[in-house]
Amino acid sequence: MSIFLAEFFGTFLLILLGNGVTANAILPDTKGENGGWIVITAGWAFAVVFGITLIGSISGAHMNPAITLAFLLANKIALGNVPYYLAGEFAGAFCGSLLVFLLYKNHFFSPLKDPKLKLMSFCTSPQYPTKGTNFLTEVVGTFVLVITVFAIIDPMNQLASGLHGLLIGLAVFSIGLSLGGTTGYAINPARDLAPRLVHQLVHYPGKVSSEWSYAWIPFFGPLAGAALGKWVYFSCVESLLGV
User: CA-CA distance, 149 to 153, in Å (whole number)?
Assistant: First the structure.
C-alpha cells in the first residue's frame, strides 16, 4: 500500500505541475500564454525533480510505467509490487490531469484559434501523423531516459543520492529540448493515457477528438524504449564502467 500511495502522490504532483505548465503556456488569457517550448520543458523537468524529492525514499519515485518495466527487467523491484506501482501511476496521473482542468476551466472555456492546443494540455499529439517516426521518437526518448536513470543511480558512478532527482530532472529537460518537438515527448504511458481519458470525459466548448487512434504510440513506444534502454545499459554501458 505504501508503494501505491507514494506513486499516486508522486505522479499526481508530476502531472499537476507538468500539465499545469503546459496549460499555462498554451491556453488563452493565462498569465503565461505563449510561454513557449522552453518554459514547458523546464516546467516538466521541475515537476520530475519535485516528484522524486517527495517520494523517492519510499518507492524509488518511478512515476512512469516505463521506468517500472525497466526496473522489473533489471531485477530491481519484485514482480509482486508491479501492480501497486502501475495503479498508483495511472491513478495519480488521472487525478493530476483532472485538477489541472478544474484549475484552468475558465481558460478551457475561452475561444482559441487552434482548439487542438487544448488537447495538448492533457496529452501528447504529434505535429505530423507519421506513425512510424512518432513511435521511433517515443522509443528513442524513453531509451535515453532509462539509460540515464540507470547511470545516475549506478553506484559505480559514485553520485551523491541527493543529486539523483536533480540530474534526472535535467535529463527530462534535455530530452524535451532535443527530441520533444515532434510528438510532445510522452516518454511515459501513464502521463499520456490517463490524461487522455480525462480529456475524453470532460466537456468544454469546441472540444476536439481525444485522438485514441494515436494513443497506442505514447503507450507502447515508451515501454519498448524502456526495454531497449535496460538491455543496452546492462549489456554494454555497465560493463564499460566496470573496466
Answer: 6
Q: State the DSSP code for 234.
A: I
Chain position carrying cell 487525478: 95
Q: What is the CA radius of gyration of the chain?
A: 17
Asked if residues 98 and 24 have their Cβ atoms less than 8 Å apart, the reply is no
Closest by CA position to 63, among listed 180, 222, 175: 222
pTM, two decimal places: 0.95
Q: At 129, list the grid cell.
A: 501523423
* Separation between Cα atoms, residue 52 and residue 67, nearest integer Å: 13
Contact 97, 192 (CB under 8 A): no
- What is the C-alpha separation between 142 and 139, in angstroms, rounded? 5
CA distance 208 to 163: 41
Look at residues 46, 72, 80, 234 and name the one whose alpha carbon lies nearest to residue 156.
234
Q: Which domains does the chain have, with CATH numbers?
A: 2-241 (1.20.1080.10)
pLDDT digits (tens, 9 = 90+) for 153-205: 998 888 998 899 999 999 999 999 999 999 999 999 999 999 999 999 999 99
How far is it, in rounded angstroms, from Cα 164 to Cα 1? 24
Residue 37 grid coordinates: 517550448
pLDDT in tens, 105-132: 999 999 988 889 999 999 999 989 999 9
Amino acid identity of residue 115, one-letter, is P
C-alpha cell of residue 158: 559514485
User: CA 154 to CA 161: how far, in whole Å?
Assistant: 10
